[in-house]
Amino acid sequence: MTGRVHSWDLSTGVDGPGTRFTLFTSGCPLRCLYCHNPDTWRMRDGRSMTADQVTAEIVRYRDFLRAAGGGVTVSGGEPLLQADFTGEILRRCTEMGLHTALDTSGYLGARADDELLSHTDLVLLDIKSFDAGAYRSLTGAKLAPTLSFATRLSRLGIRTWVRYVLVPGWTDDPAAIDGLARFIAGLDQVERVSVLPFHKLGAPKYEALGIPFPLANTPPPSAETTARVRAGFRAHGLRAD
């Protein structure tokens, strides 16, 4: 089993509980205007690695990850673009007794079969917008597959953390946020909503790739706006940070 891998690193408190070995796969079907990793968009730019090679890297940190209450997160890019490879890595991690997480937009959720999800302890679900028009303008894709995947995760009882990037002028509409909060509140197993303020840390990557950064002139949200949006999710009984 071979996949295309961008990189991996160790992180704490970002990609799931505890300290994580986060594997970044290459390739993504979306083109989010605020994406901070444009270098992961194309599969062909990634490094070809076998599942054995990836597993060997994870094994180096296995005992540490267990002791730190962490595990392995498969991210991207979009890991479900390589669903078979992603599923194999998750399966092997489960067999090693490591906590597993899948970081996905949900747009390709239909590719995650029940076998893959049976080896997934937590899904980090990035919902870009709850307005279908804004979602298409922001990502170039349809919103419906992500909502369908979220509903399926709820039905299967899979723990989910929702991520929502707050971008002024794009994802700060109160009505859309309220609609999303109502949708999430109607799901089972959603443990938290992380409101992530838009930033421009990925801008140098665009420059290096010779690609214009679409939101170069968009400011980050104010602390007041971020607090308001988090309060909007909490008003529906959700844990938001």
TrEMBL record:
GO CC field:
cytoplasm
What is the protein's species of origin?
Streptomyces buecherae
User: Which family does the record claim for this protein?
Assistant: Belongs to the organic radical-activating enzymes family.
Pfam families given in the database record: Radical_SAM (PF04055)
Catalytic activities: glycyl-[formate C-acetyltransferase] + reduced [flavodoxin] + S-adenosyl-L-methionine = glycin-2-yl radical-[formate C-acetyltransferase] + semiquinone [flavodoxin] + 5'-deoxyadenosine + L-methionine + H(+)
Cofactor-binding details, from the entry: Binds 1 [4Fe-4S] cluster. The cluster is coordinated with 3 cysteines and an exchangeable S-adenosyl-L-methionine.
InterPro entries cross-referenced by the UniProt entry = Aldolase_TIM, Organic_radical-activating, PFL1_activating, Radical_activat_CS, rSAM, rSAM_sf
Residue span, Radical SAM core domain:
14-239
Gene Ontology molecular-function annotations:
4 iron, 4 sulfur cluster binding; [formate-C-acetyltransferase]-activating enzyme activity; lyase activity; metal ion binding
The cross-references to PANTHER family, in alphabetical order and at most eight, read:
PYRUVATE FORMATE-LYASE 1-ACTIVATING ENZYME, PYRUVATE FORMATE-LYASE-ACTIVATING ENZYME
The protein, known as: Pyruvate formate-lyase-activating enzyme
Source species, domain of life = Bacteria
Using the UniProt record, give the first listed, main subcellular location: cytoplasm
- Which EC number(s) does UniProt give? 1.97.1.4
Co-factor requirement: [4Fe-4S] cluster
Q: What is its subcellular localisation?
A: Cytoplasm
Role noted for this protein: Activation of pyruvate formate-lyase under anaerobic conditions by generation of an organic free radical, using S-adenosylmethionine and reduced flavodoxin as cosubstrates to produce 5'-deoxy-adenosine.
Q: Which UniProt keywords apply?
A: 4Fe-4S, Cytoplasm, Iron, Iron-sulfur, Lyase, Metal-binding, Oxidoreductase, Pyruvate, S-adenosyl-L-methionine
Write the signal peptide boundaries: none
